[in-house]
Amino acid sequence: MPSTKSLMTQDKPIINKKVLLKAFKLMCTSKRMAETYDENREVCGKYVHSTSRGHEAIQLAVGFQLTAHDYASLYYRDESILLGIGIQPYELMLQLLAKADDPFSQGRTYYSHPSLKREGFPIIPHQSSATGMQAIPATGMAQGIQYLEQVKGSDENKPLVLCSLGDGAVTEGEVAEAWQMAVLKKLPIVYLVQDNDWGISATGKEMRNMDAYDYASGFKHMERLRVDGADFVNSYLGIQKAFSYVRERQGPLLVHAKCPLLGHHTSGVRKEWYRGDEDLKKHAKNDPLPKLKAYLVDNGISLSELDRIEEEAKEVVANDYQRALQADDPDVKTYSMHEFAPTEITKESGERMPERADKVVMVDAALHAIEEILKSHPEALFYGQDVGGTLGGVFREAATLAQKYGSHRVFNTPIQEAYIIGSTAGMSAVGAKPIVEVQFADYIWPGINQLVEELSKSCYLSAGKFPIQSLIRVPIGAYGGGGPYHSGSIESVLLSIRGIKVIYPSNAADMKGLMKAAFYDPNPVVMLEHKGLYWSKVPGTKEAKTIEPSVDYIIPLGKARQELSGDDSIIGKVPSCVIITYGMGIYWAKAAAIKFEGRVEILDLRSLNPIDWDAIDTAVKKHNRAFILTEEPLMNSFAESLAGRIGHRCFEFLDAPVQLLGAANLPAIPLNVELEKQMLPNVSKVEQVLAELLEY
């Protein structure tokens, strides 16, 4: 690959004339689109948007060279890349105006936020507009491509991933996580950094000590290339070399493209608010359009031909704008569509208790479920902190899997919860099926950003085109001396995130059946696994060890299980109640119910979202008393929310207020075991609440 210096100083060769004229036409198109939006601010400014003015040269150079086999992760200023791959101005305007036929989101998300799965075009999965966050899912795509080539054979088309970033976004920590994995695994990805020296109203000097090109030098094996992002020929040749390098599987590469910013940051943050005349004039001198026009004239293209092309572009934009104005708005009835992609797992199947099967503890049921998945699905892989190598997880929940299936399928990651979670979005987009683990629930917080912005919204904002198949395992809960960073419960935070599913098995059979269903579910599923139940060593939890179900056993998500039934001969004659719980709460409830023989039903939710409201409703109306038991602190929790729902929907059936019991409202679990016991629910506390409820 030529050095940066040689690329920048070589004489400009003639690129195919059709390519050059197409670039000129689309630059004229892009310019006229921006002008049209500005001239019609009252209409076009209703929804915030950015344009690509100043960035057209580098973006068209990229768009022209992406193939139908490639993947792209674009950011909000990349409309010229979209024009370059063949998206029409009319289609972009439909998104600008949030129309029903917006091809990316059906009116749900901002301009130039594409979600594209169309024959003959690069695949562009949904991504948020949070700058820099796209680097992790994009790198996950590249890792997924590499993995599938390892297990299915090399793809002759040599697909690559293009991740587009602004230079200001490179200061985000999640970009560093992505780049670390890219160089560690030598992934097939090009990071395009478009540097216009502005980050909203902050200048480059305010935001960074070095630009992205210099910063990337710290990532060993990251090849780097500088191009003039305002010069189409230079940009085209640079991207050509960059793509060739990555298609040859030599590793990741960063292209740093210096561009002028000729438009506003966004329609909501206009350039005249924060940029002086001197800065605007300086950037205008580097406008890519007159540069390309002069180059074309120097190479024999007549001004009359260029004027004709410019007029044609203006006419297209004018006509497309009028058509877009007349297009239908979305039917408001569609607002709730695509929260989740439909799953085929709707019924329990297989044998829960096959004859002559042995009992297993929960951790082994999980291990066996993962192994059965890996055996049957070559596209499946498992990764996280310490799950690979010889350890196989700090709880031995992946023991022997790396040795059996190879370090390309079962492997350790750096301490990068954001990458572990966010990469699954990219993996899913390319057809890999990731199972990942966050080592402890208390460590999930760095990954919440990706879970919220990338995973949870993808299906909804792409209008169903890009659901994310992601199974995220999270050991959770207190188990005797784990202390403040290994004992927390986090389900209420997770359940406040729309667009993800959350499950919580309490025994080995449910562990296996739910894990299989979660793997086959096309949506993001977080599986909470109580560490205190893994080995059935905590007193009172022996029943978490069960007969191991058959290989094909599966439990649909959203179905509760009656763990203990009341005595129908006395229910209705004496006060009775249902305890609604999950996880460790099952075992506190079962032990406490012994004192109230026949008067207590225990409902194991198993799935917290989707939740089995029908089972809850039936049980509450049967007993007229409800008790919600959780290991979490109660204040502002899932348990309180559920109690409120029961109180609202079942009010006329209740003979007593809904009772709750959870941990004390404190910020962490203390290390000392006696302090831990004092903070958490236990059998005697459950007995006391039961007595009060039944005597009410």
TrEMBL record:
Entry coiled-coil feature ranges:
none
CDD domains in UniProt = TPP_E1_PDC_ADC_BCADC, TPP_PYR_E1-PDHc-beta_like
Q: Which GO terms describe its biological process?
A: branched-chain amino acid catabolic process; response to nutrient
| Enzyme superclass (EC) | oxidoreductase
Q: Which UniProt keywords apply?
A: Oxidoreductase, Thiamine pyrophosphate
Question: Which cofactors does the annotated protein need, by name?
Answer: thiamine diphosphate
Q: What is its EC number?
A: 1.2.4.4
Q: Which GO terms describe its molecular function?
A: branched-chain 2-oxo acid dehydrogenase activity
Provide the Transketolase-like pyrimidine-binding domain boundaries: 360-536
InterPro entries given in the database record: DH_E1, THDP-binding, Transketo_C/PFOR_II, Transketolase-like_Pyr-bd, Transketolase_C
Q: Which Gene3D superfamilies match?
A: 3.40.50.920, 3.40.50.970
> Does the record carry Oxidoreductase as a key word?
yes
Q: Which superkingdom, per the lineage?
A: Bacteria
Q: What does this protein do?
A: E1 component of the 2-oxoglutarate dehydrogenase (OGDH) complex which catalyzes the decarboxylation of 2-oxoglutarate, the first step in the conversion of 2-oxoglutarate to succinyl-CoA and CO(2).
This protein is called: 3-methyl-2-oxobutanoate dehydrogenase (2-methylpropanoyl-transferring)
Give the source species: Fulvivirga sediminis
